[in-house]
Amino acid sequence: MSMRLRRIDFGVRDVEAQAHFLREAFALVQEEDGAGGARFSAPGSVEPAVATLRPAPVDRVDAVAFAVESPDQVDRMHAHLADLDAGVVGGPGPTPEGGYGFELFDPEGHLLSIAAGTPTRTPPGPRRGNGVPMDLSHVVFNSGDIDGLSRWYCAALGFRITDWLEDKLVFMTTSRYHHQIALAASSDPGLNHVAFECADIDDFMRATGRTMRMGHEVLWGPGRHGPGDNAFAYFRSPAGFICEFTTELKVVDSPDWVASTWQSVPEQSDLWGTSNPRPNDAFRGVPDPGLGILPGSPEELELLVAR
Ligand SMILES: [Fe+2]
After folding, report:
1. Which of 159, 191, 244, 306 could cross-link to 195 by cystine, CB 3.0-4.6 Å?
2. Are residues 12 and 54 in the same domain?
3. How far is CA 54 from CA 13, 62, 170, in A?
4. How close is the Cα of 233 to the center of ligand 1, in Å?
5. Do 43 and 170 reside in the same domain of the chain?
6. 122: CA distance to ligand 1 center in Å?
7. Which residues of 223-235 are buried (b: 16+ CB within 10 A; e: fewer)?
8. Residue 48 in domain
9. Crossing angle, helix 71-84 and helix 146-157, to 10 degrees?
10. pLDDT tens column, 189-215
C-alpha cells in the first residue's frame, strides 16, 4: 500500500513573516488564500498546495497530509486503525477539500490527514535553473521513542523502515523513495524539519545560494547524507521551523532492499565533507504546543491563555 505525501500545514502567529520566508527564500509559489492564511504550491506537484499557513495563537504543525488511491482504501485504513485503537479523530467522510478521508493523531500527537479524491492539478512542470523546489520531499518528526513510534507507523499506516542512523534516526516510506517520514530521537516531540525537493543538484545549489545571499544562515549543509543519499541544506524559518532543500533522494523500490544501520559520524552524515558540524541543539527542536490538539479547536485557544 502506497501513500503519497501531499502537504504540510502550519499554524503560525505571524503569517506574513513565515509566508515571506517560504515565498522569497524557499521560492514556493504563493497562491490565493481567502482566510487570512497563505497557501504555497510547487511546480512539480499535482497538489494545489504543498504547504499552508493558518493564523494561530501558537506556532505549531497543524497536520501532514497523505493521499491514498481510493475511497475503499480510506475505508480499509480507517477500519484497520479502529481495530488498533489508534487516535482516529472521526470519519471517514467528506473532507473540506472535496475528498474523502479522515484524520488521526499518531501516539505522540502529530496530526495526520489521510484522504482520497482530493482535487489535483496538472503540474506546471520543471523550471530548472531558478532554484525553485519542485515538490514536498519528506517530513521528519522529533520523537521521544523512535523505536516504538516507528513500529506504530509500520503497523498502523503501512510504512516500511528503509534505514537507521544508529538509534538516533529511523527512515520510513510507503513509496519508492527512501523516506517520506523519518523520526529523530529527541526529548521534545514536534517537527524536526520539512524538506522540499529540487529538480537536480544545480537547482539545489542555486536554491541554497539564493537563501544564503538573502542573509539566512545555513544551519547545516550544504552536503550529501549517507542514508538516503540526498543532498541537504537546512535553514530556520521565522516561526522556528527548520526547512531543508534536498535533491536526488534515493529510490528504494527493489524488493531486495534491506535496511542498514549507518553510523552517526561526519563521514556518513556528510559524504562530501562540505558541511559544518551538525548543530544538534538546533535539531532537538522546540516542543510543539499543538501536539494532540486539533487546529482551531477550543483547546488550542486555551494554549493562548496558558502562555
Ligand atoms: Fe531531511
Report:
1. 244
2. yes
3. 8, 9, 30
4. 9
5. no
6. 26
7. bbbbbbebbbbbb
8. yes
9. 130
10. 999 999 999 999 999 999 999 999 999
Q: How far is the CA of 282 from the centre of ligand 1 (A)?
A: 14
pLDDT at position 307 is 63
Pairing relation of β-strands 38-41 and 93-94? unpaired
**For residue 121, is it within any domain?**
no
Distance between Cα 82 and ligand 1 center (Å) = 31
Find, among 24, 102, 17, the residue nearest to 68 by Cα: 102
The pTM score is 0.96
Say if CB 113 and CB 157 are below 8 A apart: no
Would you say 66 and 5 are in contact if contact means Cβ atoms under 8 Å apart? Answer: yes
Below-50 pLDDT ranges, the chain? none
- At residue 233, the pLDDT reads 98
Q: How far is the C-alpha of 215 from the C-alpha of 106, rounded, in Å? A: 36
**280 and 188 together in one domain:** yes
Report whether 32 contacts 23 (CB < 8 A).
no
Q: Are residues 176 and 110 in the same domain?
A: no
Q: What is the pLDDT of residue 148?
A: 96
Please name the amino acid found at residue 133: P
Distance 194 CA to ligand 1 centre (A): 7
Same domain, 158 and 105: no
CA distance 212 to 290: 30
Backbone torsions φ then ψ of 193, nearest 5 degrees: -165, 165
Which grid coordinates are listed for 263? Answer: 553510523
Q: How far apart are CA 64 and CA 231, in angstroms?
A: 23
**3-state helix, strand and coil shares in percent for the chain, rounded to the nearest 5:** 20, 35, 45
Query: Cell numbers 544508529 label which residue?
Result: 166
pLDDT given at position 83: 83
- The stretches of 44-104 forming alpha helices (DSSP H) are 71-84
